[in-house]
Amino acid sequence: MGENKKNVITVLLYHSVSNGNLKIDIPPNLFEEQVKFISDNFKIVSYDDLIKSVVNSENIKENIAVFTFDDGYLDFYTDAFPILKKFSIPSKVFLITSAIETGRLSFGKVSNRKFLTYKEIEELSKEQICSFGAHTHTHINLRVTPVKRVVKELKVSYEILKNLLKTTQIDFSYPWGIVYHKNIVRSLYRSAVGGRDGILDGRRKIDLYAIPRIPLKRESFQKFKKRISGKYVYESYFREVKLLFNDLKKHVH
Ligand SMILES: [Zn+2]
């Protein structure tokens, strides 16, 4: 890495591998270049192995990277996974359970994006290098949703994944990274990603219910290299303020 750090844990956050026009849409050729760079410069471990190391308080002595995807778009199956497989890279996909097959989100909204179907999720979960987690049932904002609904959302997505994946050890991703109702999350899930962007120090104690990530975007390779070394983590402060402002606006009207 150029520097002498040896205990860096970088949990990467991807959304879509596609030619869409949002910043979260990373074209397949660019994604492949990023994957190659990351696999040349980090030891890549699965999300599950990271959690096991943290739970067992193992010392992390290398620079590691972990691949995660939020929302569960269809292009994970069609575009991202074939590239990950080529490099034997494990990844975890956090699913919006109500959007599986249907694209259905909260407040009756239907996304115009295509989501994974049950058939693809089952096929992918047979692969050694692919696992799934929950991202609520309908992608709610945990900070502004009444607690009864929060409990329901978290339980429904937990139950769906428990039945689908035949395990009780399920991990969670907070929508928009908004860490809220941590105790409810803790009562159901094994771990959770969210909060401000960041890179973990393997020598320090890690909060299993607010694991920071580095969000990847469609941008130049130069910026990408800086981003994965943590240069732009301050951007999440602006995102946080924007989200808070939006929440307040919703309450006023
Ligand atoms: Zn999301």
Share of β-strand residues:
5-15%
Question: Based on helices, strands and strand pairing, what is the structural class?
Answer: alpha/beta
**What is CATH's topology name?**
TIM Barrel
Q: In one word, what is the shape? A: globular
CATH architecture: Alpha-Beta Barrel
What does the model show?
With 253 residues, the chain is an alpha/beta fold. It has one domain (8-252): TIM Barrel (Alpha-Beta Barrel), CATH 3.20.20.370. 38% of the residues lie in helices and 15% in strands. It contains 8 helices and 9 strands. It has helices at 28-41, 47-55, 75-86, 118-125, 147-165, 182-188, 221-228, 235-252, and strands at 8-14, 43-44, 64-71, 91-95, 130-134, 171-173, 191-193, 200-201, 214-215. The strands form 2 sheets. Strands 1, 2, 3, 4, 5, 8 and 9 form a 7-stranded mixed sheet that branches. Strands 6-7 form a two-stranded parallel ribbon. Strand 4, helix 4 (118-125) and strand 5 (130-134) form a beta-alpha-beta unit. Helix 1 packs parallel to helix 3. The protein is globular, with a radius of gyration of 17 Å. It starts with 7 loop residues before the first strand and ends with a helix. The relative contact order is 0.15. The mean pLDDT is 94. The structure holds zinc ion. Residues 70-71, 135, 139, 175 line the site of zinc ion.
